[in-house]
Write the structure tokens for this entry.
Amino acid sequence: MTLTSRIKNVLDTLKSPSKAELKEALIKLDLNVDDLAQLPKPSNGKPYNRKLLYKNEEVEMLVMNWSQLECAPHDHGGSHGWIQVLSGTSLNSVYEMTGSGLPAELFHEYHHKGKHFYAPKKAVHKMKASNNTDLVTLHLYSPPITGMIVYDLQRCAACVVSDDCGAWWPKEQFQKVKEIQIKKDIVTEERNPN
Ligand SMILES: [Fe+2]
């Protein structure tokens, strides 16, 4: 059986999966880094490169191959999911939203190879490879992510990014679905005419 049909067999049984069901699916699949040949190398200046392994209407599964750069704080839109560390160690920082509309770091934690950790709906986090490890992570989200918000805390800005953009500030205007300027308690939204 090919890897894709193995993944499809497990993931096609999920309908609006709960937190527990999503984790069970990952455990059942029991994927490791050796199952995933020819991972895309991270491009210059990007925190990771990702490869879509499977997607249907209910779920999407991606593998991410990390550089040593940190991604930007972001949420996963209206999706929840699990992240499994396939190689290396991840440093995951978890945020809470403040009244200003900007997230503030609550805590950070290390996750080593084999560990699964949960990302609730609307939760904001950022990740990076810890201690120069070769970080590879497997992500299972439900439903497939759309409307992800990325934050630039230095510029007090937030942006809804297009589905093809990763967890970094978009370089291309077309990847900015909606830019949100946050100034103290005043939030102004500027819609991208495109
Ligand atoms: Fe994320």
Remarks:
- Residues 27 and 71 are 26 Å apart (CA to CA).
